[in-house]
Design goal:
By secondary structure, chain A is of the alpha/beta class. Chain A folds into two domains: about 5-225, Rossmann fold (3-Layer(aba) Sandwich), CATH 3.40.50; about 230-295, 2-Layer Sandwich (Alpha-Beta Plaits), CATH 3.30.70. Helices cover about 30% and strands about 30% of the residues of chain A. Chain A is built from ten helices and 14 strands. In chain A, the strands form three sheets. Chain A has a six-stranded mixed beta sheet, with helices on both faces. In chain A, strands 2-1-4-5 form a four-stranded antiparallel beta sheet. In chain A, strands 12-13-11-14 form a four-stranded antiparallel beta sheet, sandwiched between helices. In chain A, helix 3 (about 100-110) crosses helix 4 and helix 4 packs across helix 5 (about 145-155). By secondary structure, chain B is an all-alpha fold. Chain B has 13 helices and no strands. Chain B starts with a helix and ends with a helix. The chains are: A alpha/beta, B mainly alpha. The interface of A and B includes residues 97 and 151 of A. Bound molecules: adenosine-5'-triphosphate and magnesium ion. Magnesium ion binds near residues 51, 52 and 90 of chain A.
Chain lengths: ~325, ~270
């Protein structure tokens, strides 16, 4: 067995731009990173940091300018490695004319599954991502969030050892995000390696054994999220039951009511949850989840840069 | 099992559902049926006209299917980015190209067969409806099996056109690919003229350029044996084999080039 599930060595990618005067844009700059089997790695960075580029290099959708990427001890693009991995592309798109079930059966077939095995697996997976009822609908009629869920299901069709997810939470509503978080957690519990990209810290917080942070194509830090100092700016609280009218009385202004009696409450920094929770439980609300909202990665980098520059000035 | 048959089967399944394809085939079948009416207007000539129109319809509609589906096969995957999902499966890039090609050839085979059956049905009806005396006047019987040679060569030609469309679509936009493919289809029919070019011009540069083009561009005229078949001139098995062999070599070269280009591409 390979020592590392994923290994990036000096991975570098230049995109040529400009037709008349070609100039290379360096999207990824000598990134080296090792991920051990069973790890859940959050690959974080602000927009344009090079996250998607890294994942495309790992899938060999693009070729590196320099360096190499390995999955399960094999070079990117290797067919044996591809048998054992799953990939959710960024804002995935599949085939308009297929139903979710047909898509999964087709992809399952590419892994050598027989149609009946693939169909069974398709229905299990579509139930798992909450699309059981829509499995026979054409993908043309799917919303962005539903396509995202299909994308997650198709990434798991071969029961992969390593799962790559590019912005798995994008396009999902709060409940969808929570479901996806739970799904990633269960992938981790099943012993799979998960490599997911995000620009939202709270996504990583609940799930990751480790994060890697990139800015402008460079890896700036790796480690446990708790060890990297992010400031908490507020909380996202999801509650269930109770009387929604009563929430207004609490002076909570950022309340959204989502499906089946759930309410999403955005708590600002000056209303910490320990102040609000007793009130809510008195009103017979049950807490579904509580997630801190950290400063954005962009803010973190601004601070990091400012701190670096301060002693010199 | 290789993934090529799976990809091919998927192309076939999807194109069978394609409304454009239905309409094209339906229209071709209607046209073949309508040729019966046109044939009625020209006494004695009718069976030739029906054969001629029927074979021409098979070729032209096959051409539309080959080009319009052919250029979309790969370029749509790239443009809509569905290729990201597909290539992350255990699929090598050459398998994707070959699977798509085989799938479309399969689709074309079924369509050409449908059109051929429609043509034979019209001709068979005609033969049955006419008097024995009248039938004697025809150069070849209405349901002359020699027409199969013409249909086979049309199909082989369509396989070649499909390979051209696929080749262009691996590196250029769908519209440009369509224009280039139709362009080559037309040029391919007048290819033989390039050979005689040196007798017409004095410039040795122009003459050798014409020679290079003559060998490089596909020669599509030999696939067209409609006139022979309609006038009951025999088309030998050797001729069919030789022409098909030429097509096979050309298709092989095109697919090789398509795979080569496609394998080096970045999908951004
Ligand atoms: N096809 C391309 N041509 C030229 N430059 C590109 C191309 N794709 C990406 N880039 C550049 O490469 C850099 C990294 O882009 P990438 O898509 O990997 O970022 P990202 O981290 O995934 O961002 P996001 O959070 O917005 O998805 C950006 O500066 C971007 O402008
Ligand atoms: Mg991205």
């Amino acid at each position: 067995m390979a020592r590392y599930a994923i290994r990036l060595q000096e991975l570098t990618k230049d995109y040529p731009t400009g037709f008349w005067r070609p100039r290379a844009v360096r999207a990824l700059d000598h990134v080296s990173l090792d991920v051990e089997p069973g790890e859940v790695l959050g690959y974080l960075g602000p927009n344009g940091a090079g996250k998607t580029t890294t994942l495309k290099l790992l899938m060999q959708l693009i070729y590196p300018t320099f360096g190499r990427a390995e999955i399960l001890g094999r070079p990117a693009g290797d067919i044996e490695a591809k048998r054992r991995l799953g990939y959710l592309p960024e804002s995935p798109y599949f085939y308009d004319n297929l139903t979710a079930e047909e898509l999964l059966v087709y992809f399952g077939g590419l892994f050598g599954l027989t149609p009946s095995v693939a169909r069974t697996r398709a229905s299990t997976l579509l139930d798992r991502v909450g699309l059981g009822a829509e499995r026979r609908r054409r993908l043309r009629k799917y919303s962005k969030g539903m396509l995202q869920r299909v994308g997650i299901a198709q990434a798991l069709v071969n029961d992969p050892e390593v799962v790559f997810l590019d912005e798995p939470m994008s396009g999902l509503d709060p409940v969808g995000r929570r479901d996806t978080r739970e799904l990633i957690r269960s992938l981790r519990d099943e012993g799979r390696t998960v490599f997911f990209s995000s620009h939202i810290l709270s996504d990583a917080e609940a799930l990751c054994t480790r994060v890697a942070i990139t800015v402008q194509g460079r890896l700036v830090s790796t480690g446990r999220l708790a060890d990297l100092a992010f400031e908490v700016q507020g909380w996202e609280l999801i509650v269930h039951g109770g009387d929604s009218a009563a929430l207004v009385g609490l002076g909570l202004d950022a309340v959204t009511t989502v499906s089946d009696g759930r309410h999403v409450i955005e708590l600002p920094f000056d209303r910490p949850p320990d102040q609000v929770l007793p009130e809510l439980s008195r009103l017979r609300f049950q807490v579904v989840s509580l997630t801190p909202r950290h400063e954005s990665l962009e803010d973190y980098f601004m601070r990091l840069v400012a701190r670096r520059q301060a002693p010199a000035a | 099992m290789s993934v090529i048959p799976r990809i091919a089967a998927q192309v076939f399944k999807e194109s069978v559902r394609d409304k454009v394809l239905y309409n094209l085939v339906l229209f071709a079948v209607l046209l073949i049926a309508a040729s019966y009416l046109i044939g009625q207007l020209s006494a004695g000539q009718d069976v030739k006209i029906i054969k001629d129109l029927g074979l021409a319809a098979t070729q032209i509609f096959g051409l539309f299917i080959a080009v319009f589906i052919g250029i979309g096969l790969v370029s749509k995957e790239v443009e809509r980015r569905s290729i990201y999902g597909l290539l992350s499966k255990p699929v090598r890039r050459h398998e994707l190209i070959l699977g798509k090609y085989v799938g479309l050839v399969l689709t074309l085979a079924v369509n050409v067969a449908v059109m051929a059956v429609a043509l034979y049905a019209v001709l068979g009806y005609m033969s049955w409806a006419e008097t024995e005396e009248f039938r004697q006047g025809w150069e070849a019987s209405a349901t002359d099996p020699a027409m199969l040679a013409a249909i086979l060569l049309i199909f082989v030609q369509l396989m070649l056109v499909t390979a051209i469309a696929l080749f262009f679509s691996t590196f250029s936009s769908p519209i440009l690919s369509a224009v280039l493919t139709f362009g080559l289809f037309v040029v391919g029919h007048f290819n033989a003229d390039l050979r005689n070019f040196e007798n017409v011009v004095d410039s040795p540069v122009a003459a050798s350029l014409a020679r290079v083009l003559y060998y490089a561009l596909p020669n599509l005229a030999p696939f067209d044996v409609k006139a022979q078949v309609v006038h009951a001139h025999p088309v030998s098995l050797g001729y069919v084999a030789l022409t098909s062999g030429y097509a096979a070599a050309y298709i092989g070269a095109l697919l090789l080039a398509a795979v080569f280009i496609f394998s080096k591409r970045d999908f951004k």
